[in-house]
């Protein structure tokens, strides 16, 4: 893994994304969603994307805008339907977008497995439900388990709070969510941060994502979604 | 056994706050608890401040505090329903795979979930109506249902059309098999036990009237 590159422009940081790429996008609703990097991805023109993200966009910005622009062919997520997921709802109902629904813990563990070199795993989550239909099962310690495969990305877009110049990352509160596991699970990981600090400024004990997982860091000034600022996003 | 129409008024039972108070009273001090979106969130309002109950939220936090007041709203600090919340002293943050490992690994004592239906065996249906025009969304429901040591359900006993939601077999798509241990409803508290479905408490209804509403064999445990 080559050393991290600090890129000032979000669009430049994701400009080489090919059509058809599998893109892991961090965030839980708007918390930790790398909105500026997604806007850069829209600018790049990449299309036919498979996007892996917990939700399927909120309001009209970020992931919602990527979907509205028709760039996403397939969405792998746990909770697409929300009060403000109208961009997704419209494309889904029009049949312009495929949905693979995955229980949230299986989604997280599949991503973690990809970054950890684990090909697949058996989990009790989902056993006996419609979301396990057609999947291999096994009884382990008297309990039904379902085989779930690792889920890797060509590109991960992650929002962290702070990076040092080597790409060591610290997150903020519940905006951490999928960031650390997605950073590890993609061929190329691009991270937007509120600030870049000198090497040595982050206590090594506090580093959450070590720099080995990070390829590009983009300092951004965050624009908050109005729904979040008003505290009414549900 | 099922009565879907009656000339007499349906029993009213207890309201949502009183139901939340019932659940809160049954959560042992010091428990690690996850409260689902919707009605279960209300349980937090009735936990005694000195109970030491620590709330887990699936999006990577232990020690979650109450909903944030306007001036405290932080877009980086939300609960599973994406509502801005606060943090309590002793809180911790962790990534999503750890958060669900915590659940699946049996480290949470109790989770409280809403439901469309619960079967007499404790099967749970709470994520999808199954209607073809509905966009399905599962979130963490399946992980929570089978992960926590005990899964409590909170719901109205009867649907809007008067049918009991405690059923012999779920007809809605399943969330998990044999995972529910207690069902708190506006009319009664049910314990799902090896001997069957035990009625622990009644709220404004006689036992015989309850058995007429529910198409599941019941055991009267109200005198225990």
TrEMBL record, chain A:
Gene3D superfamilies, sorted: Glutaconate Coenzyme A-transferase
Pfam assignment, any one: CoA_trans
Xref: SUPFAM superfamilies: NagB/RpiA/CoA transferase-like (SSF100950)
Record flagged with keyword Transferase: yes
Alphabetized GO MF terms: CoA-transferase activity
Top-level taxon: Bacteria
Endpoints of the signal sequence: none
Keywords: Transferase
Keyword Signal: no
Family matches, as PANTHER family: ACETATE COA-TRANSFERASE SUBUNIT ALPHA, KETOACID-COENZYME A TRANSFERASE
Family: Belongs to the 3-oxoacid CoA-transferase subunit A family.
Identification of the protein by name: 3-oxoadipate CoA-transferase
Organism: Nocardioides gansuensis
UniProtKB/TrEMBL annotation, chain B:
Name by which UniProt lists this protein: 3-oxoadipate CoA-transferase
Assigned protein family: Belongs to the 3-oxoacid CoA-transferase subunit B family.
Native source organism of the sequence: Nocardioides gansuensis
Superkingdom, natural source: Bacteria
Keywords from the named record: Transferase
GO molecular function terms attached to this record: CoA-transferase activity
Gene3D superfamilies assigned to the protein according to its UniProt record, in alphabetical order: Glutaconate Coenzyme A-transferase
């Amino acid at each position: 893994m080559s050393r991290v590159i600090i890129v000032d422009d979000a669009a430049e940081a994701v400009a080489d994304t090919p059509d058809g790429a599998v893109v892991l996008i961090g965030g839980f609703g708007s918390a930790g969603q790398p909105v500026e990097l997604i806007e850069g991805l829209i600018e790049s023109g990449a299309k036919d994307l498979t996007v892996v993200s917990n939700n399927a966009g909120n309001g009209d910005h970020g992931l919602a805008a990527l979907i509205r622009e028709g760039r996403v062919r397939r969405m792998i997520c746990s909770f697409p339907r929300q009060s403000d997921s109208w961009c997704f709802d419209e494309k889904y109902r029009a049949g312009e977008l495929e949905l693979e629904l995955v229980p949230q813990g299986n989604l997280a563990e599949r991503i973690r497995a990809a970054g950890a070199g684990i090909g697949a795993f058996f989990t009790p989550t989902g056993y006996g439900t419609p979301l396990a239909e057609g999947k291999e099962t096994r009884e382990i310690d008297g309990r039904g388990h379902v085989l779930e495969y690792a889920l890797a990305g060509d590109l991960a877009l992650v929002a962290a709070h702070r990076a040092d110049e080597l790409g060591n990352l610290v997150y903020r509160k519940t905006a951490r969510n999928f960031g650390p596991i997605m950073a590890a699970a993609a061929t190329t990981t691009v991270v937007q941060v509120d600030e870049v600090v000198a090497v040595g400024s982050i206590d090594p004990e506090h580093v959450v994502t070590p720099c080995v997982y990070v390829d590009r860091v983009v300092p951004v000034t965050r624009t908050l979604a109005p729904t979040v600022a008003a505290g009414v996003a549900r | 056994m099922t009565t879907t129409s009656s000339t007499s008024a349906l029993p009213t039972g207890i309201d949502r706050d009183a139901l939340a108070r019932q659940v809160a009273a049954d959560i042992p001090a010091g428990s690690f608890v996850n409260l689902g979106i919707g009605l279960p969130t209300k349980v937090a309002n009735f936990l005694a401040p000195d109970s030491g109950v620590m709330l887990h939220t699936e999006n990577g936090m232990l020690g979650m505090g109450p909903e944030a007041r306007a001036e405290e709203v932080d877009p980086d600090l939300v609960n599973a329903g994406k509502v801005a919340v606060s943090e309590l002293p002793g809180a911790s943050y962790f990534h999503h795979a750890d958060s669900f490992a915590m659940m699946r690994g049996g480290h949470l004592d109790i989770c409280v979930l809403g439901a469309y239906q619960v079967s007499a065996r404790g099967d749970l249906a709470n994520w999808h109506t199954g209607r073809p025009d509905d966009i399905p969304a599962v979130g963490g429901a399946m992980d929570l249902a089978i992960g926590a040591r005990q899964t409590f359900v909170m719901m109205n006993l009867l649907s809007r059309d008067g049918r009991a939601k405690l059923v012999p077999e779920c007809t809605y798509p399943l969330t998990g098999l044999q995972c529910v241990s207690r069902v708190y409803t506006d009319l009664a508290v049910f314990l799902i036990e090896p001997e069957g479905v035990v009625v622990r408490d009644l709220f404004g209804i006689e036992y015989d009237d309850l058995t007429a509403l529910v198409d599941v064999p019941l055991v009267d445990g109200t005198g225990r």
